[in-house]
């Protein structure tokens, strides 16, 4: 068996593996072997539905050394005034360019695509899915698991319900390649993928009454206008969260206050949402989603037969000629929270709230610039991804404390302030802007009270995770 040597073996060339590798090679003279079972970098974006776009600004996505897109504000269309958001082909082209020009071009990264990683004890192997050749990889420094938060998507995850043979259930991807026009579309799912599917159908002229939306939970979503790479908007958002939290009587009250402040959006004003994965949504998308009146709130689907959809709390007829559209993969994953620097490997997770690319880049920077795992784990405690209002509040508390900890290190603060992926970036020249100062003053006024209140409303079940 052939063997190769490398300093770092990074498993997973999705956004997180790419962002980690980029920051690492920028700050350390090391060799990285990057492995993915997909043929190219970009992870889940390679199998996404063709009309997908980032839900956040392109500037917040990708790797630290290379901006995705042009950093431009949209001039036309329903999102005029908001930052551009890359579509699938742009994201794929971007990661291809970073891999070939920057990584492989540097001579310090080897990419083993279409290859499966596996370990046997402390030995590491990579097997080509094309040739079946296996190489043993001798790792001088670290193995990096960049698959720990890998999201599930409909194209690669079967629907989470039974389907009798003669019923047509398709992943959302197939909306773009229909052979026959269905009479009705039954969209299954409560999250960002379902909203994307509905917005796309409506924008293509499908009347709202031909869409049935099976929505087991109602979602809270972030108003895209308040998640923008602009320090005034960024600091205003954090100040809004802390101000709302400071006097919130319950988690529902917190989210209703954030709705009143223009931060959170919900589709149906008569329903208090329980889901808080909080992707961003624009006002024009919200208006379209509100035109769907056939909303089924009977829990999750158990099975679908030719004439019926059976759910946890009842059943509905399935009209002839309906197409059931699977948008029900859970997306975000919630594996156990573990120290990022473990004895066996580095497991990439989030640190500040959200923004996986920034967190992976921060991990790469800290790996390159510190030499003690205890210290690295102190600076970068793992965070959770949100699902409910309680986990969303916990994520805010954990993320704020973590950002204060790593931000207290002068070199990290300087690096983070130069990194476009960082939503909290305030360049030195912007610090004296009166609007930034006003936001900072409001944040200072409410931060401690807001953190204390969120901690009380959503107590921390992992109190000792910061200590390794
Ligand atoms: C539709 C959608 C839209 C999103 N939009 C945004 C957004 O706008 N902004 C934002 O910040 N986040 C967004 N996210 C979330 C974000 O994309 C993800 O959290 C993050 O980018 C996922 O990257 P990843 O590298 O963790 O996982 P992945 O992209 O899944 O990459 C992991 C890779 O590991 C590989 N792999 C796994 N196991 C092995 C193995 N044994 N051997 C070899 N390879 C292996 C897989 O093939 C995969 O390519 C979105 C997510 C989805 C699903």
Structural account:
Strand 2 (32-35), helix 2 (88-103) and strand 3 form a beta-alpha-beta unit. The protein has three domains: 2-151 and 332-405, FAD/NAD(P)-binding domain (3-Layer(bba) Sandwich), CATH 3.50.50.60; 154-220 and 281-326, FAD/NAD(P)-binding domain, CATH 3.50.50.60; 228-265 and 426-468, no CATH class. The protein is an alpha/beta fold and 468 residues long. The strands form four sheets. Strands 1, 2, 3, 4, 5, 6 and 19 form a seven-stranded mixed β-sheet that branches. The chain is built from eleven helices and 19 strands.
Would you kindly provide a brief summary of this structure?
The protein is 31% helix and 18% strand.
Detail the topology: elements first, then pairings.
Elements: E1 2-11, H1 15-27, E2 32-35, H2 88-103, E3 109-112, E4 115-120, E5 123-128, E6 134-145, E7 162-163, E8 169-171, E9 184-188, H3 192-203, E10 211-214, E11 221-223, H4 231-246, H5 251-260, E12 264-265, E13 280-281, H6 283-289, E14 295-296, E15 301-304, E16 308-311, E17 314-317, E18 322-326, E19 346-347, H7 356-369, H8 373-379, H9 389-407, H10 410-417, H11 434-457
Parallel strand pairs: 1-2, 1-6, 2-3, 6-19, 7-15, 8-18, 9-10, 9-18, 10-14, 11-13
Antiparallel strand pairs: 4-5, 5-6, 11-12, 15-16, 16-17
Helix pairs in contact: 1-2, 1-7, 4-5, 4-11, 9-11
This protein binds flavin-adenine dinucleotide.
Flavin-adenine dinucleotide is lined by residues 11-17, 35-38, 43-44, 48, 52, 54-56, 60-61, 116-117, 146-147, 149-151, 153, 193, 331, 355-357.
């Amino acid at each position: 068996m052939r063997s190769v040597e490398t300093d770092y073996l990074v498993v997973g060339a999705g956004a997180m593996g790419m962002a980690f590798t980029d920051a690492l090679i920028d700050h350390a003279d090391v060799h990285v072997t990057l492995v993915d079972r997909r043929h190219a970098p970009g992870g889940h974006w390679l199998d996404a539905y063709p009309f997908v776009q980032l839900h956040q600004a392109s500037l917040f996505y990708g790797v630290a050394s290379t901006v995705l897109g042009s950093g431009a504000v949209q001039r036309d269309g329903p999102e005029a005034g908001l930052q551009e958001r890359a579509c699938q082909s742009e994201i794929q082209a971007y990661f291809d360019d970073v891999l070939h020009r920057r990584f492989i071009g540097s001579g310090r990264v080897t990419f083993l695509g279409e290859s499966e990683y596996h370990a046997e004890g402390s030995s590491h192997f990579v097997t080509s899915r094309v040739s079946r050749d296996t190489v043993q990889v001798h790792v001088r420094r670290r193995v990096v698991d960049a698959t720990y938060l890998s999201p599930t998507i409909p194209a690669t995850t079967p629907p989470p319900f039974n389907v009798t043979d003669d019923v047509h259930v398709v992943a959302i991807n197939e909306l773009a390649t229909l052979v026959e026009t269905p009479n009705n579309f039954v969209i299954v799912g409560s999250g960002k993928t379902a909203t994307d599917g509905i917005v796309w159908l409506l924008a293509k002229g499908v009347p709202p009454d031909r869409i049935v939306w099976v929505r087991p939970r109602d979602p809270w979503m972030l108003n895209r206008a308040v998640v923008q790479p602009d320090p005034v908007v960024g600091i205003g958002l954090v100040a809004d969260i802390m101000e709302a939290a400071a006097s919130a009587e319950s988690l529902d009250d917190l989210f209703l206050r954030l709705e009143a402040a223009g931060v959170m959006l919900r589709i149906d004003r008569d329903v208090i949402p329980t889901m808080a994965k909080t992707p961003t949504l624009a006002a024009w998308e919200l208006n379209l989603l509100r035109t769907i009146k056939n909303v089924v709130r009977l829990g999750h689907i158990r099975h679908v037969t030719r004439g019926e959809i059976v759910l946890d709390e009842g059943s509905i007829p399935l009209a002839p000629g309906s197409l059931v559209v699977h948008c029900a993969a859970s997306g975000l994953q919630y594996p156990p929270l573990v120290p990022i620097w473990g004895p066996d490997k580095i497991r990439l997770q989030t640190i500040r709230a959200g923004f996986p690319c920034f967190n992976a880049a921060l991990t790469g920077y800290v790996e390159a610039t510190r030499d003690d795992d205890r210290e690295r784990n102190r600076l970068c405690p793992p965070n959770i991804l949100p699902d409910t209002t309680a986990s969303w509040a916990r994520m805010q508390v954990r993320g704020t404390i973590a950002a204060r900890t790593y931000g207290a290190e002068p070199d990290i603060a300087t690096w983070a302030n130069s990194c476009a992926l960082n939503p909290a970036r305030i360049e030195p020249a912007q610090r004296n802007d009166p609007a930034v100062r006003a936001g900072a003053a409001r944040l200072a006024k409410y931060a401690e009270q807001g953190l204390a209140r969120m901690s009380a409303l959503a107590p921390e079940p992992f109190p000792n995770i910061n200590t390794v």
